[in-house]
Amino acid sequence: METTAVVVGTGNVATHLVRALQQSDVRVLMLYGRNREHADEAARLLGVSSTTDWKKLPSGAHFYLYAVSDNALAEVLAHTIAPQAIHLHTAGSMGLELFPRHKPRHGVLYPLQTFSKSKPLNFRTVPLFVEASSPDVLAEVNRLASLLADKVYEADSQQRRRLHLAAVFACNFVNHLYAIAGNLVQSSHLSFEVLRPLIAETASKIDFLSPQEAQTGPAVRRDDAVMKKHLALLNDHPEYQKIYELISRSISGD
């Protein structure tokens, strides 16, 4: 039997999720978006039909996947549609308690990855974390997840919240540090390109070493003289000084 899905959302996660469903022979019946322009753009990009009207969504899909911001999740889940279907949200930090009573078969399909619409991604390499309202629903969610990715893990809401927190440190905060580093080299009339080999080598070390084993730099060496010089160079950026001092103390264990 053909598996069908409706996807709610038009952002980065929704875009990659629709592509992964299509590549796994799951037929996406329709895409929903609150913004007409965004919905039309996503529909053209992905080759699916779209709507901004809940009443026009098909009610016979097997899965309804909600890939929207955490702030919008409760609102979209409140809509009454397809009570017999399995409804899944994709949020790492939100639990099962958001699902209303008229969606009794529900769960979570959380992809642990950073997504950008313009950057291709092999979804099969993305770890998926699943949770469900009952064992029979969990079996169906596992089946869907296995169609999409090679690695599927069961994790309850509390585990997933901690995982999402870890992801913020490992991805969002690290990316912000890249932005700071870029600002610093550009202020010296150098290109961010000079940092790319360093960033790539640092990331690749994690394939062979633990983060603790891979740690280098003045803080782990407790080289106070170098760190004082660095802080002096940041006198025009007191917010960078605070970040430098806080992370250095965390690395050195002081």
Can you describe this structure?
This protein has 254 residues and is an alpha/beta fold. It has two domains: 4-155, NAD(P)-binding Rossmann-like Domain (Rossmann fold, 3-Layer(aba) Sandwich); 160-252, N-(1-d-carboxylethyl)-l-norvaline Dehydrogenase, domain 2, CATH 1.10.1040. 47% of the residues lie in helices and 14% in strands. The chain has helices spanning 12-23, 36-46, 70-77, 135-148, 157-187, 196-205, 211-214, 218-221, 224-233, 238-252, and strands spanning 4-8, 27-32, 50-51, 63-66, 86-89, 106-111, 128-132, 152-154. The protein has an eight-stranded mixed β-sheet, with helices on both faces. Helix 1 links the parallel strand 1 (4-8) and strand 2. It starts with a strand and ends with a helix. The mean pLDDT is 94.
Helix content bin: 40-55%
**Which spans of ≥5 residues are poorly predicted at pLDDT below 50?**
none
CATH architecture descriptor text of the largest domain: 3-Layer(aba) Sandwich
What is the terminal-to-terminal distance? 60 Å
Structural class: alpha/beta
What is the chain-wise order of helices and strands?
Answer: EHEHEEHEEEHEHHHHHH
Question: Could you name the CATH class of the largest domain?
Answer: Alpha Beta
Please give the radius of gyration in angstroms: 22 Å
Largest sheet entry: 8 strands, mixed
Shape, please? elongated
Average pLDDT works out at 94
**What is the CATH topology assignment of the largest domain?**
Rossmann fold
- Which homologous superfamily in CATH is the superfamily of the largest domain? NAD(P)-binding Rossmann-like Domain
Tally of separate domains: 2
Q: How do the strands of the widest beta sheet line up side by side?
A: 3-2-1-4-5-6-7-8
For the secondary structure, the number of strands is: 8
Strand percent estimate: 5-15%
Count of DSSP-assigned helices? 10
